[in-house]
Amino acid sequence: MPMLNTKGKALTVAVLLAVPISIYAADQREHEQTVVQQTESSWEGPKLLAAAPSTSGGSTASASAAGVVPVRIAAASLTDSLQGGYDVAATQLKVPWSMQFNGDTVYITQRGGGIVEVKNGKQTVQELRTKKALRVVGEAGLTGFVLDADFAKNKYAYVYHAYEEKGKALNRIVKVKLVNGVWREQKELLAGIPGGRIHEGGRLAIGPDGMLYSTAGDANQRELSQNLSSYGGKVLRITTSGAVPKDNPFKNSYVYAYGLRNSQGLAWTSSGTLYASDHGPSGAPIPGGGTDRTGLDEINVIKPGGNYGWPTIQGTQTAPGLIPPYYVVGPQAIAPSGIAATPDNKVLVATLAGQSLKQFDPIAKTMTDVLTGEGRIRDVAVHDGKIYVLTNNTSGGSAGADDDRLLILK
């Protein structure tokens, strides 16, 4: 896989990150190898998901019924096909956070407000009108965004944004509609998600099962992550009409998984496995005294009802009933944000502190650099066989004259 150092636009051989890989139980490692190599996953989670089509073109259902283990032919590596450099599709974005695609049109949220439409080489900032005012403080603002599966026809989408109510910082998920160039709120799906200045979470995604998934940070109130009565520190699962799915793991609850700190990335591989990135403590102060261990950013395999341990365990620590991370970065924080799956079931990871786009190999348990030299990276997407990257230098970085930008890797 090549690494792109775009300051020189040179193509070089990728190097492994000098970060330690966590030691995991043998059965967990063997299981993920099976998940990636087969067309169907044996995790309990993907049983809730619609089966992804086999890249070999065969019927996985009939093969399974016949007692034959279906083995998927490996897809070509998307990152290995990169030749070097990138095209710049948009410039001077203001703290961009999430991107979505409708054909060749790209929509990008800006944390301070507004959704940027990038179409035919032109950028247009479109207004977002919500019934509760957007709260923009620290990491809070307009973040998560996902288009409805039938957006081309119905013009519906879903946004995650911060607001304030009775002096309390909160987040909510609303359904919006694009009408004459303005995104207008149609319905509030979920409100009361804890908010603050940091740890807002906010990533939205529609799963293979058609459900709406959302990450929610612990809002720097770590005790919320283990509290099933709170939405803080969770992965939430919602119908697109705002109801609790009947097959959610906790009765009458939107909570799908818990014990997370500040997850900002969700992606499914073709096997149906759901991955989530999570920010480690990075030496943060502990309320009441003390300091967390540094780094320990995570890639997790999300199972329905799973407890991922924060703040009871960190890094490679284990405890009964708690699920350790599938992969743990070492003591140097990379701050993973958006993630995206590739056709060959690798996971691309946008990193802020790491100032790079990385690729995670679930079988080898390694991370390699794909793009460096462009500063902070907030989001990544794979669309029509191309890799799109959103830089994030206007928030905590060293912004250039054209920052922030939407890049298309070549």
Description:
This is PQQ-dependent sugar dehydrogenase. The chain has 410 residues and is mainly beta. The chain has a single domain (2-49, 76-409), classed as Neuraminidase (6 Propeller), CATH 2.120.10.30. The protein is built from 3 helices and 27 strands. The strands form 6 sheets. Strands 2-1-24-23-22-21 form a 6-stranded mixed β-sheet, with no helix packed on it. It has a 5-stranded mixed β-sheet with strand order 8-12-11-10-9, with no helix packed on it. A hairpin with a 5-residue loop joins β17 (265-268) and β18 (274-278). The longest helix has 12 residues, at 26-37. It starts with a strand and ends with a strand. Mean pLDDT is 86; it is low at 6-73.
Terminal residue distance? 13 Å
Output the strand order for the largest sheet.
Answer: 2-1-24-23-22-21
> How much helix, percentage-wise, in residues?
under 10%
Judged by helices, strands and strand pairing, the structural class is: mainly beta
Classify the beta-strand content into a percent band. Answer: 35-45%
Rounded to an integer in angstroms, the radius of gyration calculated over CA atoms is 20 Å
Please describe the biggest sheet, giving its number of strands, its sense, and whether it closes into a barrel.
6 strands, mixed
Architecture per CATH nomenclature, i.e. the level-2 architecture: 6 Propeller
Count the beta strands.
27
Name the average pLDDT: 86
Protein name: PQQ-dependent sugar dehydrogenase
Organism: Saccharibacillus sacchari
